[in-house]
């Protein structure tokens, strides 16, 4: 995407234009990439062909025996348009192989992508594609190692992406992808035996025969990925990348260069306003030595704020329509296996903005440690004084008879947890009846029934037939359920110094707040 972050030089496609484009690209790839033909630009009909050669790249690296690779060449055609944007097309996606030598043996990966097509309109004003699409016929990947072999494949992939300038700054981008007939086969092998010598130098006992390899096959009818960014600081991040490329050969930065770097880092904040991503795998099947497991759908979701003073960061994992093979568990317990599981949690009130700006202000790349001990100590103290809140969004476990949900939050008072969670269960009586019938054949189940009845006594019956438990845990250790105390406060500990960390480190607002105009050290001693 960086290859066209440049103004249009001229509508005529010629060698001069190719040279100018190559010089512009060197800002992002380095002059060496152009000089050693790692990256080339040549006129081709009414386009410029931009080619990246991995063979030339590997030739430029120091000689070594650890890594070998072959990725071939990857090229695209780009054509300047009258409005300043660039038309970009390609009929290939990179394939290749990697081989490494590790202490446990040789590891290798090979992959290929067939019948690929990429097309889009790259807009230098936003530093990304205003629109684009891609597709390929099939993807194959194979990896081998002393402990595991993997074969993976997918068919008929396609995707679309769009970008537009955001009103509040940055760029709004979205990307949707899908592929069908996903399959992955994993063969987990026994690690290779030792060399037969014991730690004291004497001959050790002969190694036992290696265990049979474990084979797992994962299949999915459709694999889908969605990603969306609001206010992504594309241009600022590209500018920051160009700075690193320009100074990559320097051992030390001058004071003016460090000041420039700090300015660029601050300009890139908050990186983005909102960033979200999700994937789902439909009609999942997993073949294992225990039998076949299945799920109608499995999905994962991520939602991140940018670097802000009150950031929210959330994660969710959902698995629906679970099915199981015959498992070595008691028959009565099969109905208690979950059919649906949804877990959602995250944090709120996370102040990364203050920390990031303080880190930039304190940073000195010419020091042995880029960040001072004072900054690190004060950052840890600030986090302990004002930790983020943990949030449990509505999560559930569903079985054949029941559904249990939970939601709530956990905060911290003097680093001690204080929480309020709401638990709600449907089908409690059905589960209790199932346990009661099972206890006729297995009397030990009666122990579970005692606890189940006790839990019901603490619960509140709702009009819809559900049972609800509101659990309050205070920082003093006491616990109430639906207003009824079930545990008293913890024993009181003799008060210590709550204002300092071990070693007497105190919070220095001047380190954590880089926006302060001047240090006032008359009332607050400096951190040690």
3D architecture notes:
- Residues 480-528 are annotated as: Disordered.
- It comes from Phyllobacterium brassicacearum.
- This is DUF2125 domain-containing protein.
- It contains ten helices and 23 strands.
- Helix 4 packs antiparallel against helix 5 (255-268) and helix 8 packs antiparallel against helix 9 (446-458).
- The protein is globular.
- It is 20% helix and 43% strand.
- It has 528 residues and is an alpha+beta fold.
- The protein has a 23-stranded antiparallel β-sheet that branches.
- The chain has a domain at 10-75.
TL;DR of this structure?
Residues 480-528 are annotated as: Disordered. The chain has helices at residues 15-29, 31-35, 54-60, 234-246, 255-268, 352-362, 373-385, 428-439, 446-458, 509-512, and strands at 39-44, 47-53, 67-70, 73-80, 86-90, 96-102, 105-114, 117-123, 128-144, 148-165, 171-188, 214-232, 274-288, 291-305, 311-320, 340-350, 389-398, 403-413, 416-426, 460-461, 467-473, 479-481, 484-487.
The best one-word shape is: globular
Give the mean pLDDT: 87
CA-atom Rg in angstroms: 30 Å
Low-confidence stretches: 1-10, 499-528
| Class from secondary-structure proportions | alpha+beta
- Beta fraction of the residues? 35-45%
Query: What does the main sheet amount to?
Result: 23 strands, antiparallel
Can you give the helix content as a percent range? 10-25%
Cα distance spanning the termini: 47 Å
Tally of strands: 23
Number of helices: 10
Protein name: DUF2125 domain-containing protein
Region (Disordered): 480-528
């Amino acid at each position: 995407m960086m290859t066209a972050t440049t103004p249009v030089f001229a509508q005529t496609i010629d060698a001069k234009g190719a040279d100018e484009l190559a010089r512009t690209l060197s800002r992002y790839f380095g002059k060496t990439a152009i000089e050693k033909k790692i990256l080339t630009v040549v006129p081709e009909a009414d386009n410029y062909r931009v080619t990246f050669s991995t063979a030339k790249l590997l030739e430029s690296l120091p000689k070594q025996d650890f890594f070998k690779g072959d990725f071939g060449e990857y090229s695209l055609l780009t054509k300047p348009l009258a409005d300043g944007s660039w038309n970009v097309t390609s009929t290939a996606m990179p394939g290749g192989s990697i081989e490494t030598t590790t202490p446990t043996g040789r590891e290798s990966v090979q992959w290929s992508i067939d019948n690929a097509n990429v097309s889009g309109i790259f807009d230098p004003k936003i530093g990304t594609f205003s629109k684009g699409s891609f597709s390929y016929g099939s993807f194959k990947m194979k990896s081998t190692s002393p402990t595991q072999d993997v074969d993976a494949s997918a068919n008929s992939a396609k995707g679309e992406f769009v970008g537009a300038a955001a009103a509040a700054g940055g760029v709004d981008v979205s990307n949707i992808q899908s592929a069908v007939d996903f399959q992955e086969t994993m063969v987990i092998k026994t690690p290779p035996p030792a060399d037969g010598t014991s730690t004291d130098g004497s001959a050790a006992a002969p190694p036992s025969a290696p265990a049979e390899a474990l084979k797992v096959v994962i299949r999915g009818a459709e694999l889908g990925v969605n990603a969306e960014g609001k206010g992504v600081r594309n241009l600022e991040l590209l500018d920051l990348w160009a700075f690193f490329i320009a100074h990559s050969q320097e051992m030390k930065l001058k004071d003016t260069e460090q000041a420039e770097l700090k300015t660029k880092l601050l300009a890139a904040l908050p990186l983005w306003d909102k960033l979200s991503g999700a994937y789902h795998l439909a009609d999942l099947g997993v073949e294992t030595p225990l039998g076949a497991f299945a799920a109608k759908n499995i999905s994962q979701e991520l939602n991140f704020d940018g670097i802000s003073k009150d950031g929210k960061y959330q994660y969710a994992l959902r698995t629906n329509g679970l099915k199981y093979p015959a498992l070595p568990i008691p028959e009565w317990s099969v109905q208690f296996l979950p059919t649906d599981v949804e877990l959602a949690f995250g944090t709120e009130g996370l102040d990364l903005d203050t920390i990031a700006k303080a880190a930039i202000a304190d940073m000195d790349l010419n020091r042995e440690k880029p960040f001072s001990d004072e900054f690190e100590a004060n950052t840890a103290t600030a986090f302990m004084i004002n930790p983020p809140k943990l949030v449990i969004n509505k999560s559930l476990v569903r079985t054949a008879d029941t559904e249990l949900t939970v939601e709530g939050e956990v905060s911290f008072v003097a680093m001690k947890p204080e929480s309020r969670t709401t638990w709600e269960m449907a089908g409690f009586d059905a589960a209790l009846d199932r346990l009661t019938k099972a206890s006729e054949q297995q009397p030990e189940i009666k122990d579970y029934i005692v606890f189940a009845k006790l839990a019901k006594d603490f619960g509140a019956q709702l009009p819809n037939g559900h049972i609800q438990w509101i659990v309050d845990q205070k920082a003093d250790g006491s616990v109430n359920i639906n207003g009824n105390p079930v545990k008293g406060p913890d024993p009181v500990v003799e008060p210590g110094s709550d204002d300092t960390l071990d070693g007497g480190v105190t919070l220095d607002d001047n380190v954590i707040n880089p926006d302060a105009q001047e240090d006032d050290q008359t009332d607050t001693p400096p951190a040690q």
